[in-house]
Amino acid sequence: MQNKNLFLKIKSLLKEDINFLVTNRIPRRLASQLMGVFSKIEHPWISKPSIFLWRLFSDLDLTEAKKTSFNSLHDCFIRELHEGARPISLDPSVMTSPCDAIVGASGKIVGTELIQAKGFPYTLHDLLGDDVLVKLYEDGLYITLRLTATMYHHFHSPCDGTIKKVTYIYGDTWNVNPITINRIKKLFCKNERLIIETKTYDGHLITLVPVAAILVASIWLKFLNVLLHLKYPGPNQIDCHYECKKGEELGWFQHGSTIIVFAPKGFELSENIQFGKIVKMGEPLMRVPKG
Fold first, then answer.
1. HSE-up of 246 (CA within 13 Å, CB side)?
2. How far apart are CA 142 and CA 175, in angstroms?
3. H or E segment at 76?
4. What is the arithmetic mean of pLDDT over 36-52?
């Protein structure tokens, strides 16, 4: 029995090593750009076999998709859902999840420090690089939401409010799967990312940080009509005044990735938010402070 357990442990470690090497020890930016080109080829000899293999070797579920026929792999990646597939919680005392995701980490920010994975802390300044935001979210609340490759890739507003500013931070494209998160320190702070600041109508500032990853490296913002990616020329700070409603679509990832949600001190996690649990867009995420 001990030999069998040892064998299984070694097998698991080797599998993790292979996964890490295949998805990270390659030219990550080049792989992302090539994947972007390949995924947009609109030819049935390319798109149909690609989607067939994707479904065969994964848990890709297209039953909720608005359409069932796709012109390209990219078209399938950024598929829309049929109306009513994601009910939005209308309770004004809750903020909703901006996306379908797996809860990777969540809780109170200790001073300015939060957790990427067990034993892997990072700071607000490492991620946000903005002293005003760092001060605002000191001792606040955060949730890390991981989108897998097969999930719905659009993200939505978690609250009613006004998007005041978007900041684009150029970076790397490390994989953001659990294997890499448990090995690379400050991974989210190394990768390409956006900082989307939304002022709620009751005066709170909620910030979404979509983080790109290998094979992603492009994030479309619908309300700005701009594609932010590794070749984006700027500007890196985009001031705006966009009125958004809870559940309104804001943009999409080209593949799977991560969104980190920040709220000031006083917010609380919803009861359904637990490590490793799947949360759907529109479900309760945080509770707004009373008064």
1. 21
2. 21
3. helix 73-77
4. 78
The residue-averaged pLDDT of 252-269 equals 90
Residue 235 structure tokens:
């500007």
Which member of 39, 106, 218, 257 is catalytic? 257
Place of tokens 């479904």: 55
Q: What is the CATH number of the domain that holds 238?
A: 2.70.70
Would you call 156 a catalytic residue per the annotation?
yes
At 174-189, the pLDDT tens digits run: 777 777 788 888 989 9
CB atoms within 10 A of CB 17: 12
Does residue 257 have an active-site annotation?
A: yes
Q: Which of 156, 204, 229, 255 is catalytic?
A: 156
Mean pLDDT is highest, among 31-45, 51-65, 93-107, 211-225, for: 93-107
> CA 240 to CA 234: how far, in whole Å?
15
Residue 283 belongs to domain spanning: 94-287
* Cis amide linkage into residue 87, ω under 30° from 0: no
Please say whether the dihedral angle defined by the alpha carbons of residues 165, 278, 114 and 171, taken in this order, is positive or negative.
Answer: negative
- Annotated catalytic residue within 100, 126, 130, 172: 100
Question: What is the pLDDT at residue 197?
Answer: 97
Residues 230, 134 share a domain: yes
> How many CB atoms are closer than 10 A to CB 156?
23
